[in-house]
Design brief:
Blueprint: E1 10-14, E2 20-26, H1 27-32, E3 38-47, E4 52-58, E5 69-70, E6 72-75, H2 82-94, E7 103-109, E8 117-125, E9 140-147, H3 148-156, H4 166-182
Parallel strand pairs: 3-8
Antiparallel strand pairs: 1-2, 3-4, 3-6, 4-5, 4-9, 7-8
């Protein structure tokens, strides 16, 4: 068994069915050992006034998807719930507290290819002022609202501008469409 690095986030190791197998690894180990699966959590911060989603622009120094548009979120750490991860990551990465907002589970993007996580995806309706966002400089270049339909079309047409892919997110788009039709 590996001993996790003391300075790393500690993650639960997940089996092929999405269940915790009783083991923990550091984030570094989990991302380098072939076949290791873990959980991540992301939120679609949806602005109803503009029908757009707030995307992060990933740091150019990131190992994975540098400079691409990504959802706010991250790895689910050892002692955190999925929901806690959403609230924590939104606050850490963009400086906005959404604990008073309802988050709705859209679905789980399954591991595939280079993506080795079960990615829990939520939607949160919050018309936040982009000027109030305080980005985490080591993680992000900035943030940008992008019209939802544009994101959907581009991702489903295999645009390489995003860290999300058609292969993993086709079903998530269907769930977003259902939620949006109920909330209009």
């Amino acid at each position: 068994m590996h001993t996790p690095d003391n300075n790393q986030e500690i993650l639960r190791v997940i089996d092929n069915n999405g269940k915790w197998n009783g083991k923990y690894l550091s984030r570094k180990e989990a991302s380098t050992i072939p076949g290791i699966l873990f959980n991540t959590a992301f939120v679609w911060l949806y602005n109803k006034q503009t029908n757009s989603v707030l995307f992060e622009i990933r740091s150019l120094n990131k190992k994975y998807n540098p400079g691409k548009y990504g959802l706010v979120g991250g790895h689910v750490e050892k002692d955190d719930s999925i929901d806690e991860t959403i609230y924590k990551e939104v606050f850490e990465e963009i400086g906005i507290d959404i604990k008073d907002k309802k988050i709705t589970l859209l679905g789980i993007a399954q591991p595939c290819g280079v993506y080795r996580s079960f990615a829990y995806n939520y939607i949160c309706f919050c018309d936040m002022d982009i000027e109030k966002v305080k980005i985490q400089k080591n993680e992000l270049e900035g943030v940008k609202y992008i019209p939802y339909q544009q994101v959907k079309e581009e991702v489903l047409n295999n645009s390489d501008k995003y860290s999300i892919t058609k292969e993993r997110y086709s079903d998530i788009f269907k769930e977003i469409d259902k939620v949006l039709s109920k909330n209009q």
